[in-house]
């Protein structure tokens, strides 16, 4: 997959933050620590980037993504005891709304760091990957 090295690097930064801080803090604490790790690793990012949401080419509002890394990867953070399907759906919706091929959902609230790569099944970059991995497409159906 095209962005595998980058997502791997982002997840490594998140693992460092989680192993240092553990669980139990508010999301903003992890967000600040992750920004420090991104800088240490030389990753270009925007924090709390406001992005427009369109419906049939009409701007219907904005949402803030926790991180937008290297102008390619959306990173959504949580600090919850357990991720729910609604959190995965939110991250998937962000990828589709922002027309990004891939994003990450990272949860710092559990005892062990949880992360999920989230694919935009409609993005042209993912057509071959999804065709060769049919389980990906199935897991993104409601």
Nutshell version of this structure?
With 142 residues, this protein is of the alpha+beta class. It has helices at 4-21, 27-40, 85-97, 127-132, 134-139, and strands at 45-55, 58-69, 73-78, 102-107, 114-119.
Question: Describe it for me?
Answer:
By secondary structure, the chain is α+β, with helices and mostly antiparallel strands. It is 40% helix and 29% strand. The chain has one domain: Trna Endonuclease, Chain: A, domain 1, CATH 3.40.1350. It has helices at residues 4-21, 27-40, 85-97, 127-132, 134-139, and strands spanning 45-55, 58-69, 73-78, 102-107, 114-119. Strands 1-2-3-4-5 form a 5-stranded mixed β-sheet, with helices on both faces. Helix 3 (85-97) links the parallel strand 3 (73-78) and strand 4 (102-107). Helix 1 crosses helix 2. The longest helix is centred in the first third of the chain and has 18 residues, at 4-21. The radius of gyration is 15 Å and the shape is globular. The protein starts with a helix and ends with a helix. 27% of the residues are buried. Mean pLDDT is 87; it is low at 137-142.
């Amino acid at each position: 997959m095209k962005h595998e090295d980058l997502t791997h690097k982002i997840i490594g930064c998140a693992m460092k933050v989680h192993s240092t801080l553990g669980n139990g803090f508010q999301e903003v604490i992890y967000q600040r620590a992750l920004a420090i790790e991104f800088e240490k690793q030389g990753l270009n990012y925007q924090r709390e980037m406001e992005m427009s949401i369109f419906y049939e080419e009409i701007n219907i509002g904005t949402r803030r993504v926790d991180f937008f890394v290297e102008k390619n990867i959306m990173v959504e953070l949580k600090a919850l005891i357990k991720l729910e399907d609604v959190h995965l759906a939110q991250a998937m919706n962000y990828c589709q709304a922002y027309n990004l091929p891939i994003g990450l959902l990272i949860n710092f609230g559990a005892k062990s760091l949880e992360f999920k790569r989230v694919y935009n099944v409609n993005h042209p970059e993912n057509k071959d990957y999804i065709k060769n991995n049919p389980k990906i497409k199935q897991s993104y159906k409601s």
